[in-house]
Amino acid sequence: MTQTRVTTLYRMADVGPDELHRLVVDRARHDHEFREVDFGAAQGLLVAGQTDEHDVEWVRAIRALTGVDLAFSTSTSSAALFLRVDDATYALTYGHGWHFLRDDLIDHQFALRVAVRTVNPDEIRDITRWALSAKARVDRNLVPARQGLWEFGLREHAEIIRQLNGRARLHLLGGLTHVRERGDRKLQLSLDCGQSLKVPLAVDRAHLVGDLRALSAIERDQPPHDQLAPLLWVRRVPSRTPQRAELDGAVAELLAEPDPARGEIGVAYPARYYEGPDIHYYTGRVAGTHLRTEELTCDHLAEPLAALPRDEWHRALSAGRIEGRREDDEELGGELPALHWLAAEIADRDARYILIDGDWYRIGDEYLRHVRKVSRTAFERALPWRLPAWKDAPRNAKTGKVHEEDYNRYVARTLPGFLCLDRKLVPGRTHPSGFEACDLLGPDNELVHVKKTSGRTGSSPLSHLFAQGLVSMESLTDPETWHRFRGLVAQQSPERARNLGTRPHSVVYAIHRTDKPLTPETLFTFARSALASACVTSTANGIPVSVAIIP
Predict the structure, then answer these.
(1) Could you tell me the pTM of the whole model?
(2) What is the phi/psi pair of residue 97, to 5°?
(3) What whole-number distance in Å separates Cα of residue 271 and Cα of residue 442?
(4) Alpha carbon of 119 to those of 12, 176, 230: distances in Å?
(5) pLDDT computed for residue 108 by the predictor
(6) Cα 411 to Cα 404: distance, rounded to the nearest angstrom
(7) Which range, of 181-185, 400-404, 425-429, 517-521, averages the lowest pLDDT?
């Protein structure tokens, strides 16, 4: 029986048969062994090296504590074997051999593409997911058995799967030596899929080439499982790629000269600000210019950059800092790069790219269709009541405008069954400083979140509104937090508090758009994504979501 070994496998960018050296980082070209290896039908390149011996780090602690010098030393051995098999290029790494690989030439989606084709969705053991947020949060979660991924709470727009571990459907991996030669129906094989694929591969030249061909065939011929295909809908654009520089340049062009034919750009709350109350004013500095405004727009970012060459705009936006504050001058989320306050959408022939929180993501047609379908359902869900026109509310005495707090108080005074809970915070287990449960409590105990928006303000208010509603819904499913919410309602209506039930009834996003009719199509893609995420997660919790248009 052919020996196999669990091996760390990367798929690399396609290079010519004689160009395997291009896949190696520059720093490994010195003091490391390079050797071409004959694999018959495949070309091979072995890169190997060993660091100089150095003291073991913890020896110093032992010496300080005991006075005994153990004089232990160690070195690190590493190797990477690059193989071009037919029209695919792979790298097998050993020890710290992954250090030898050029990150910009790694196919970071390879392992996930294999996973969605071969892993049993009911046998996924854990998922590591990366939230697209200013906090760069990474969560590792166990998946409840036989529970759908989206029901588990993965948000298609907001998280990228960094790693997935689960049992494979063996009949799809019959081409691998490890599976084929054992032929045991009781054999169980788990795949660990991240940037690399950890899989048993043959320790034999001919059989190894066959194993790599089998993996290529799975990618080529096997369709993704329906339940797992959404994991590929959003892909991060690697940082050190020419495409990333092109996208950054496109943002500068759109910021200087908006052009709907090339893409869209607008102000957007960074994810760190999603969970808190609304921002009352913004302050910061961009390209040496101080700003303070109650309504942040693209002009506030573009005007200070006008004196700089266009190719320096991205650097200046990354270096600039902006923060949002409450009316009482309290800090909300701290300073963040000015770039993180922008959201952009660039379309090309093959895909659409979105900029969120300073990072780029590629989204496919399947994702766009999903978001449109879910968003449209929220717009079409009927409500038993209608909200009054925005202009009917009394205007603020200082500004002469109708502000959200004015509108919310007006609705509560004039429509039976509505309570105004605007700016009343509920402390929760995950939000000890408090979160805004809703602006209005509807007559059927709907959590109503109210927002005014326009094309000038971009996606920022709505993305925040949808995310804020999601935070509220998720928080209020906690019994202790719900009890505190009931106490808040009881301050205005003890009878309503007694009849609230045990969890939220539904979520309603009530929106007034000043410049054009509000439809799913008039939302930025990232605002639609935030709405779709709220709908998917809320529906999974048995809490329907609706959009109410305020005339």
Answers:
(1) 0.63
(2) -60, -20
(3) 28
(4) 22, 15, 14
(5) 83
(6) 11
(7) 181-185
Task: Compute the Cα dihedral for 152, 156, 157, 163 and give only its sign.
Answer: positive
Handedness of CA 531, 536, 541, 545 (dihedral sign): positive
**Region of residue 8 (left: phi > 0; alpha: psi -120 to 50; beta: else):** beta
How many angstroms separate the first and last alpha carbons of the chain? 74
Residue found by looking up tokens 């907001």 in the block = 158
Q: Are strands 425-426 and 435-436 parallel, antiparallel or unpaired?
A: antiparallel
CA-CA distances (angstroms) from residue 547 to 298, 367, 405, 413, 544? 27, 21, 19, 22, 10
Residue 130 pLDDT class (50, 70, 90 cuts): low
Residues 6+ apart with CB under 8 A from 343: 265, 266, 267, 268, 354, 355, 356, 458, 459, 460, 463, 524, 526
Task: Enumerate the β-bridge partners of residue 42.
Answer: 85
Closest among 316, 307, 269, 352 to 525, alpha carbons compared: 352
> Of all helices (H) and strands (E), which one includes residue 179?
helix 177-180
* Gap between the Cα atoms of 462 and 545, Å rounded: 15
> Residues of 447-464 as b/e, b for ≥16 C-beta within 10 angstroms?
bbbbbbbeeebbbbbbbb
Whole-angstrom distance, CA of residue 20 vs CA of residue 43: 9
